[in-house]
Amino acid sequence: MNTQAPVLQLKDIRKNFDAVVAIENFSLDIYPGEIVALVGDNGAGKSTLIKIVSGVYGPSSGTITIEGETVAMSSATMARSHGIEVVYQDLALADQQTVYMNMFLGRELTNGIGLLDRKTMISETEKLVKELDVRIPSAHATIRDLSGGQRQGVAIARATRWAKKLILLDEPTAALGVAETAKVEEIVQSLKSRNIGVLIISHSLDQVFKLSDRICVLRRGKQIGIRRTSETNKNEIVSMITGVN
Amino acid sequence: MSSAPSNAANPAMSMISRINIQQYVVYVGFLAIFLFFAVVLKDSGFLTVRNLSNIVLQTAPITIMAIGMVFVLSAGEIDLSIGSTVAVAALSAAVTMNAYGMIAGIAAGIGAGVAIGLVNGLLVAYVRLPSFLVTLATLGLFAGVARSLTNLRSIPVTDSTFTGFFGSGSLLGIPSLIWWTVIAIIAGHLIFRETKFGAHVLATGDNARAASVSGIPVPRIRLAVLVISGALAGLAGLLYAGRLQAAKYTLGETDLMTVIAAVIVGGTLLNGGKGSIIGALVGSLMMGMLNNGLILMGLSVSDQMIVRGLIILAAVAVSLREKLR
């Protein structure tokens, strides 16, 4: 299905905290324009894996390869410099700031004399928000005046603005209502045309089957298997997650 | 882009609810108090140019410290130590100036402020102690230092260049204290509103974790705001020493509450993420005007304190009401 090189390759990833093994023998390739879902029960190691890919933890062993180059990441900043953006479950937005300042949080644009270039930040925000069809009143709106779905839309738009290789979505609709979830799912789907990889963690199998191209199952830190979404069904995935046939 | 959702049914209402009343409280309050005094005290000289310019001159140190406080509060921290930083800075400046000359004196004054800011900042940013407790402790500590520095004696400041520059002098017919106020406000406003640093201060106070995962060096921001506050309190100390031509351990002792009240009334949130330098200026002038008017009305010191307390309470309550919705 994909002739391009993977944007991200995880090979034999292992992570232990002293004697406790959180992840072992984990390998996964993610290709540009592909949505891969990571599923597993609570405590299966999904969060640990997200933290490894986003640079918060270094793996105890194994390699992370980004577009053919093996990287060592020891901070979220390093992951970002490799083109990996994370949309956190709890959003990581600054509530009392505007949409456009959040879009450029920590990476504000400045003009020649070091002053904030609000004009460019606003117009870039408006453009992207329109492209992704995130329905917010304006780029000047304050985050806390937005609904949960709008906030998540802003968080995803921000990740899209900066991600060159991969976006990690950690339970992007966990806190949202039905209509808002549908809207966010639409936005996630539209990311496929942008030629970046998407790794999504979700508890909702309906969502996983709706959005993903492939499904990777974790159980107690072990990789149980990877399936093409079109070639599997919920029963198989559930039995892989729970270990019960 | 598509129109705003749900509440678009009544655009006029949603417009009104979106306007931040809190933002304008300080201007309305300022005008109300001004008009009240203008009417009540019209025969007591409140409206004379001399009296009004006196208010601005006397408020200069408060305004300078308020600028620092906007940065500190916006970053989600607080600096209570400014109350004693002023005296330590003024005394250090006076003593050093009398021994080694004006430049050394100025450096000692600002240096004392920066040093206190560094102590606060390092403890808050890197040892992760709460700034309220750290600066409460250093407030007391440096009040003691100010007392022991010259054994409670006040130190005269006689260097006329210094007193002109920081106190009674003027340039182009405008008093130097007004120059200091204007320059500090413009610089403070630009840095706060128009630079990356200002944006990072707000982001840190708004959501430190979000700031941190976005690559903002949160500890460095916390250190920086406390150093700025210390340095500006040091400058306030120089302004007091220049205007009064002397330094004493009591300088600035009662300013802490005035500064915090001015800043909060001016629309800066006590717990971070939002601030206004211009609001702080108007807030400071409001406090100065209140002081001046109550004295002209002939209120006793104790009555002044009570009335001022009540007015500050009312202003702060209105300012913070928005927060509680």
Total DSSP helices of chain B: 14
Which band does the percent of strand residues of chain B land in? under 5%
Give the CA-CA distance, first to last residue of chain B. 29 Å
Category from helices, strands and their pairing of chain A? alpha/beta
- Estimated radius of gyration of chain A: 18 Å
CATH architecture of the domain at 8-94 and 163-242 in chain A: 3-Layer(aba) Sandwich
Largest sheet of chain B: 2 strands, antiparallel
Strand order of the largest sheet of chain B: 1-4
The beta-strand count of chain A equals: 10
Mean pLDDT of chain B: 87
Percent of residues of chain A in helical segments? 25-40%
Relevant CATH superfamily of the domain at 8-94 and 163-242 in chain A? P-loop containing nucleotide triphosphate hydrolases
- Low-confidence stretches of chain B at least 5 residues in length (pLDDT < 50)? 1-11, 13-18
Oligomer: heterodimer
How do the strands and helices of this protein lay out in sequence?
The complex is a heterodimer of chains A (245) and B (325).
Chain A: E1 8-17, E2 20-30, E3 35-39, H1 46-53, E4 61-66, E5 69-71, H2 76-81, E6 84-87, H3 99-103, H4 118-131, H5 148-162, E7 166-170, H6 178-190, E8 197-201, H7 205-211, E9 214-219, E10 222-228, H8 234-242
Parallel strand pairs in A: 3-8, 3-9, 6-7, 7-8
Antiparallel strand pairs in A: 1-2, 1-4, 4-5, 9-10
Chain B: H1 11-18, H2 21-40, H3 49-74, H4 82-100, H5 102-125, H6 131-149, E1 155-156, H7 160-168, E2 170-171, E3 174-175, H8 176-194, H9 196-206, H10 208-213, H11 218-244, E4 246-247, H12 255-265, H13 277-296, H14 301-321
Antiparallel strand pairs in B: 1-4, 2-3
Helix pairs in contact in B: 2-13, 2-14, 3-8, 3-9, 3-11, 3-12, 3-13, 4-5, 4-6, 4-11, 5-6, 5-11, 7-11, 8-9, 9-11, 12-13, 13-14
